[in-house]
Each structure stands twice: as structure tokens, then as C-alpha cells.
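User: Fold both of these, please.

Assistant: Here is the first one.
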Amino acid sequence: MATIKQGDTVTILKGTRIRTTDSRCLDKIAGRTYKVKVKSLGSPLSIPVGHRRWDKEGNVSHEYIMCSRHDGYMIEDHFGEKLTDEEIMTRTVEGERSTSVNGTDYCSLFLVLKGPSVVWPGSGGYWYEVDVKDLPEAN
């Protein structure tokens, strides 16, 4: 995967989903392929949704992952779309492993809501953003 940095020119392909700060249209689909200059890089966004523990032999001994309906609210991704339990399971990643005082390993589980992104100034004074994984230069 190529490294993209501030000042690079990247390609936004027709059909790419774009987030924007324009309150009339928070996300849109690119109607054509075009090039933009990267102003900044957006950080990934994730939330903790559970935990996992291993026994001393290395087998998973306990796992808890929160369901999509948490405290009466549906979990939403960065575009505001509600996630199903299956989507939560497929988008959940392990955090850094730690070792407890009794010698067993454990980690937190995180739901990735948004991957790393590139940001550029667009028309009308609004900011635009796409996930790095959607750029041909990153693959």
C-alpha cells in the first residue's frame, strides 16, 4: 500500500462515496472521476464494543461483543447508517493484547466506524473527505 501524504494529488473515481461538511448533503457519490490535492489526513474512528480473553494455553476462553442495539440506541457508522449485529462482527478488530496478573491475555475489541481518510477543500467553502481505501493510489 502506497503512503499518501499532505500535498499529494489523488484520484477520486466516479462512484466513490464522499463525506462533506455541507449540512444540506453530508455525503454524496462522485459523479465523475477527478483529481484533488490532499489538504490533510483524517484519523480512523473506532469505538470499544467488547473484550476477549485467552486461557494460558492460548485458546479464547471468553468473548463479549455488544449488539447493535446498545442502551436503546442503534450503533451508526460514520455516514449515519445503522449497523446490524453481523456488520458489527465483521468490522470489529482487536486492540493491543495485555497480560493480566494471573498470566492470561486479554484485549479490548473495537468497531471501526471510519478508516483513515484524505481531506480537501471543495466548492462552496465546504470540506470533503474519502476513505484512503477508496483511492487507487493507496492500492
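And the second sequence with its predicted structure:
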Amino acid sequence: MKRLLLVFVLVVACVATGCAARLTPLQQVQATHDALATAQDLEAQLCWGVATVTAPVPDRSRCTTAIATTVGLTDARHQALNAQLATAFTVHKAVTAQLRAGTAADLTSLRTIIAAILALIGELRPAPLVERLATSVKAGEIRQ
């Protein structure tokens, strides 16, 4: 939980100061991964009331918390959000490999996936944890 809070604070500070403009493409993509991993943990808190996505839950396809119901995080939205996050991590892995190999990487698909994730979050009703989730994903937006 402390790690999650620290990452969240650092990501928000980075967004607020515009540090993404000074990052190399590889650093930006790594920051994107960290922001999306934090978002995945925040979504797990909303859906199941656990600290991280790796915590054991009885059924990963269904949300079980009252806050999930309150903000409109339906099972379908949860599944769609997680599918987009999984796709983002797959694309991230490929892009990272290209950048580490010294080749140019097209970041368009990662940008598109992040926009889709933000659109899904936008369907939720406002709440502090939803705002943190949106802020985390926004911190992962590719700016270069």
C-alpha cells in the first residue's frame, strides 16, 4: 500500500511539473507502464477491495465491493477495463523491446489504448478512488 501511494504521488508530481517532456522515449514508456500498473491496482481496490491486483480474490470476473456498485463499475466494465490494460501491457512489452534494441517504435497503438482506458473510466460516476484511477492513467499518456 505504501508503494502504491508513493508511485501515485510521484506520478502526480511528474504530471504536474511536466517532467514527461524531458524523458527519453524509453523512459516515457517505462513511466507509462508504472502508471498503468498503479491503475490496475487501483481498479482492484475498487472492484474487490484488495490492495493490489495480485491479491487473491474468489472470482476475478466479478466486482464485489459496494463502492464498485456506487461508481457503476459493473462486471462488464471491469472486464473491458482489464482487457484494455492487458493489451496495453502486451503492446508496452513490444515497444520496450524495440526501443531497447535502438529501433524506432510507433507509440500510436499505446496512445489509442490509453485513450480507450480513459473512456471506460469516464463512464464511472465520480468518487475519490475513480479520480485517482483516472489520474494514474493520465500520467501514463505518451506525450512525445
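The mean pLDDT is 89.
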